[in-house]
C-alpha cells in the first residue's frame, strides 16, 4: 500500500502507491484508523504513487474523508494524476476534497494558515 512519514507537526503524510482498489482501499482505511488513534493532527494523502484508482478505491477515499472529519480533523490530497483527478471531477467530489498540486504547496498553505 504505502507508508506513513512521521511528522512532528501535522499533517501526517500517507503515500499510497500502485493500484487503489478494494484491497488497497481496505489498507488505506486501516492506515487512516491507526493515524486517527496515534496522532492529533490532520492527514495528507500524497497520491503521486497511485497508478490507477477503481470504484472501490474511490469508495475507500470517500469513506476515509468521512472518518477523518468525524474525528474533527482535515484530510488533504495532493499530487493527483489525471485519472484520479478525472474520477473526482466526474463524481463532483473534487469540490469536497481539499486538493493541492503537491506536498510542498499543501505544507506551505497550512503553514501560512496557522500563522495568520
Automatic annotation (TrEMBL):
It comes from Aphanothece cf. minutissima CCALA 015. Coiled coil: none annotated. Pfam families: STAS. Belongs to the anti-sigma-factor antagonist family. This is Anti-sigma factor antagonist. NCBIfam families: ant_ant_sig. SUPFAM superfamilies: SpoIIaa-like. It comes from the Bacteria. InterPro entries: Anti-sigma_ant, STAS_dom, STAS_dom_sf. Residues 13-110 form the STAS domain.
Amino acid at each position: 500500500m504505502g507508508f506513513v512519514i512521521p511528522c512532528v507537526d501535522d499533517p501526517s503524510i500517507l503515500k499510497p502507491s500502485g493500484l487503489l482498489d478494494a484491497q488497497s482501499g481496505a489498507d488505506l482505511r486501516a492506515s487512516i484508523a491507526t493515524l486517527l488513534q496515534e496522532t492529533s493532527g490532520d492527514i495528507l494523502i500524497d497520491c503521486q504513487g497511485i497508478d490507477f484508482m477503481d470504484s472501490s478505491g474511490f469508495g475507500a477515499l470517500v469513506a476515509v474523508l468521512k472518518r477523518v472529519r468525524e474525528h474533527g480533523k482535515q484530510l488533504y490530497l495532493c499530487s493527483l494524476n489525471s485519472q484520479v483527478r478525472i474520477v473526482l471531477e466526474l463524481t463532483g467530489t473534487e469540490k469536497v476534497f481539499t486538493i493541492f498540486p503537491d506536498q510542498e504547496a499543501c505544507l506551505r498553505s497550512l503553514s501560512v494558515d496557522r500563522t495568520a
